[in-house]
Design brief:
The complex is a heterodimer. By secondary structure, chain A is α/β, with parallel strands linked by helices. Chain A is 48% helix and 14% strand. Chain A folds into two domains: 184 residues, Periplasmic binding protein-like II (D-Maltodextrin-Binding Protein, domain 2, 3-Layer(aba) Sandwich), CATH 3.40.190.10; 220 residues, Periplasmic binding protein-like II (D-Maltodextrin-Binding Protein, domain 2), CATH 3.40.190. Helices cover 73% and strands 0% of the residues of chain B. Chain B is mainly α. The chains are: A alpha/beta, B mainly alpha. Chains A and B meet through helix 3 and helix 19 of A and loops of B.
Amino acid sequence: MNRMRLIPAALAAAIASAGSAQAADLTLCWAAWDPANALVELSKDFEAQSGIKMNFEFVPWPNFADRMLNELNSGGQLCDLMIGDSQWIGGAAENGWYVMLNDFFDKEGISMNAFVPATVTGYSEWPKNTPNYWSLPAFGDVVGWTYRKDWFERPEIQAAFKEKYGRDLTPPATFAELKDVAEFFQGREIDGKTVYGASIYTERGSEGITMGAMDVLYSYGFKYDNPEKPYDMEGFVNSDGAVAGLEFYKSLYDCCVAPGTSNTYMGEGIDAYKSGQVALHMNFAFTWPGFEVDPNVGGGKTGYLVNPAGPNGEKFAQLGGQGISVVANTDNMDGALAYIKWFAQKDVQDKWWSMGGFSCLRAVVEDPNFAKSQPYAQTFLDSMAIVKDFWAEPSYATLLQASQQRFHDYVVAGNGSAKEALDGLIADWTETFQDEGKL
Amino acid sequence: MTDTPADRIARATPPAIARRVRGLPDRVIAWIFVAPTIFLLLAVNIFPLIWTIRLSFTNFAANKPNAEVKWVGIRNYTRILTDADTWANMQTTAHFLIWTIFFQVLIGFALAWLINRKFKGNDLVTTLIVIPMMLSPAVVGNFWTFLYQPQIGVVNYVVEFLTGIPADSFSMLGPGGWARWSIVIVDTWMWTPFVMLICLAGLRSIPDYIYEAAEVDRASKWRQFWTITVPMALPFLMLAVLFRGIENFRMFDLVVLLTGGGPGDETLLASIDLKREAFEKWRTGYSSAYAIILFVTVFGLASIYVKALNRVKQR
């Protein structure tokens, strides 16, 4: 065989071997944020054990849903594994984007009872409260609050607060107290710098203001629909309590945020808090490990708060977080299922928590040492016990866009009243459910 | 005798093909050359357009490939045209369109008129002026978000310096009615150089002898401007308006980066609304109807405008 004949043969062999290597690879898709970086590190153990090479496709949060839902919808083969948002589960299940995992769980002895119940309902089940599982709870998350503990402990600040409000400056237990604290810090000079009361969600484009407003509305009595009659929203979405909750959120926005925060979400909140601009900070729990190691707000300067209670003492929090699912279009089903099996193990979940991943495995979070393992661990546990989530219907994106528009228009732009905003929301949501044939 | 490219191609053509082609009429040969382009045009432009028109009469949702697709007649069109939000978005788009074009033409023409006067450093100034239009909209959006930031942004400090209004007491991109004007300012900053370049081409196409004749007739500079400069540069100006009008009707990236359509719906342009309907809410049939309405609007306005442009050119 002469040299000229050898070249194409070698080329063909190289292409064939590259093709087979690619087939064994797995691509995991998720949002681009700190936990994703931790997962890259964690997954090196899986690569070493299985010999399967892991690739990752991370998209920043504001574009995550847009990009990944397009990918799933178009039947793309980019992702073998998807850590998709909790609200996608209805659409993903009904449109056949995810693989139903019941048989796999049964075969491998993975029990959903081993996971925190709220995460199973929120991330895995569709229809809700039925034993149909489309993902393994991967990352527990919930909206909570952080506050500048070091500022709260300063004697001169404590004295000034007591003089103004007649009580001690303590971490707020109710939303009314939270507003007092935010008002107190608004425009105050601390260390020669003007600081502001609170950082809250106001983002218009994706889901920001809905996550923020709902986080307050739940504790004021908001319900998505009649528990006895699904999709019957009148008197639940626009109940007196819900109206008061939305008015409260607007009043918090009007009185106590830093200038220019009319379109802020997780990233902007983190920046505002780390730069010492605000005393109170609403954000998902995933941000907390980053604060602990931050030179400005870490090392004991930050306190962690469960969502405060509403006027009637009710206390709920907005669920975040995601489950890990197998994409139906994957060409490496065995590899993807092997990853989920590996990820469900106790020792992997222990390591996941130690690296900043919020494990949903009960054996991890119910360990007697868990609460003391991190300064925010107990707050995380307490918060996960009171979660509620947005609609997880297949039409969730339409429902979400309606609430984004109604809430932003009232809270930020200052148009109309809270009652009008919520009445309008019922009209929008009713139209969507009618289109879906559910009403 | 030297070979021409045609001779070389003729020699390289296999005799069998050459014989076949030689026997074909010119019209057929012309079609052979044009056919690939026509095919591409049909496949990439015309077919999707026809398909979109078809979808606009259905309830099709691209995220539900297995759902039954129902014929809904003109329901999507009536829903869009009777929806107050759609009209509000159209008004926002019209506000953006009219004011950006107004400022860009005004400033662009003034800059072109100044640049057209020969002075030292003319080329350098022209280069500096066109820099904004060379930047990516993503860069411009982020850059201006910082400039508009009430605490650290330059814009609020300039306003405070000039008016005494505290810099952190208002937000250019937040509530208070400034957001619409803020996006107009950014688009004007970015695209005025483009209008300027087109106007400059127009001004430089006016022959000097016309001005010399006007000087001989003792026409004032003011009269020369209104009777020579403006009429002769008008076709170029109108072309610039056409380009900017079409571009700004589909403006998306800059506004999404600056405001996300907010506060409320204050800067929600029709193009952003359409994108949300199509690719976030997945109401494909509805958004197809929306797209057709926007297409007809742009196409209709552009056709009327092009006719006017041709009339001006013929004068």
